[in-house]
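Structure first, sequence second, as always.
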């Protein structure tokens, strides 16, 4: 028992040391708006949002890919997922994902995220109220994921992420990488998740909108090409813990019907201060679920809540989930998700 206590203390100290390099950075140095592709940090998945985004250690299946690619190591057969979220003024984003277990220890998945602004008016200095032409701003992220179960307690995963922004006649595209792990510590039922996401080279915008015709230009084609600055992607490090306080696998309170799971995440990105999230999920018979969560030390994100049902159908299962998220600068968001396991 003393050895278990010592190992738990070492685990906590190790988790803290991973963030130690940021302790001396004052909160005022937030570096907000110093990266591009910030839609990559949008929380997706109704279950994850209901838990306040605390999904690095608790995430299972394709919904956990943006938080930790090792999450697909929990897929039992095949799995598909779709979700839709509406923001204000016609902005929306969607997720479509598919994952499969290839062998007893190998897993693959594809995860597509796309955000759309809805139609907007094209304006210029001559027609400030609109030329009559419309355009959309769209952002896309396509991840190809591979995970492997190394032992009965350790899973690792990685993904290649193709990203692209289209803003009228201007675009940005690039690639990034994610890597993550999920480890069953064997200490009082705690699971430890860690991930680094959006690791890749700097990107910049190109396109016709950055080209102007200049009659007196010495350029042979008579055009001036504007060169935009390069910006980094929102590199993000996450570390999370989860524990079944009540449940079949709980070391605290055993129950075959009720489950109460606690999830906690610490998050540090290259363009924001250290922040975190915490969530609770109650499950009744692994059929009905209630979730609540909160963001910690974040200037806009607040409380979240949600729920869902999971219906077993022989060798397959269908899950329908809903999540509500509050925000201090925009209207509350509502997300619906549909997950099918087969």
């Amino acid at each position: 028992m003393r050895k278990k206590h010592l190992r738990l203390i070492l685990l906590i100290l190790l988790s803290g040391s991973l963030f130690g390099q940021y302790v001396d950075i004052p909160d005022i140095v937030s570096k907000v708006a110093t990266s591009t592709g910030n839609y990559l940090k949008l929380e997706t998945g109704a279950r994850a949002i209901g838990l306040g985004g605390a999904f690095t250690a608790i995430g299972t299946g394709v919904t956990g890919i943006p938080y930790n690619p090792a999450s697909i190591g929990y897929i039992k057969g095949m799995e598909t997922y779709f979700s839709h979220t509406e923001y204000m003024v016609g902005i929306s984003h969607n997720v479509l994902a598919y994952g499969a277990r290839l062998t007893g220890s190998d897993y693959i998945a594809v995860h597509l995220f796309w955000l759309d602004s809805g139609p907007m008016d094209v304006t210029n200095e001559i027609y400030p109220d609109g030329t009559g032409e419309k355009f959309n701003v769209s952002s896309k992220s396509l991840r190809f994921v591979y995970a492997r179960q190394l032992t009965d307690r350790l899973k690792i995963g990685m993904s290649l992420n193709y990203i692209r922004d289209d803003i009228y006649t201007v675009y940005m595209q690039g690639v990034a990488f994610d890597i993550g792990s999920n480890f069953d510590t064997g200490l009082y039922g705690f699971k430890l998740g860690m991930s680094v996401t959006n690791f890749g080279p700097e990107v910049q915008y190109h396109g016709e909108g950055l080209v102007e015709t200049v009659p007196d230009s010495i350029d042979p084609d008579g055009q001036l090409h504007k060169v935009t600055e390069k910006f980094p992607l929102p590199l993000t490090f996450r570390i999370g813990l989860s524990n079944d306080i009540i449940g079949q696998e709980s070391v605290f309170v055993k129950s075959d019907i009720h489950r109460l799971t606690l999830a906690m995440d610490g998050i540090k990105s290259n363009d924001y201060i250290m922040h975190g999230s915490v969530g609770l999920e109650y499950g009744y018979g692994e059929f009905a679920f209630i979730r609540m969560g909160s963001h910690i030390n974040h200037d806009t994100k607040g409380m979240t809540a949600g729920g869902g049902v999971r219906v077993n159908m022989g060798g397959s299962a269908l899950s329908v989930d809903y999540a509500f998220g509050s925000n201090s600068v925009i209207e509350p968001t509502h997300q619906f998700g549909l997950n099918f396991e087969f």
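Margin note: The first helix runs from residue 2 to 19.
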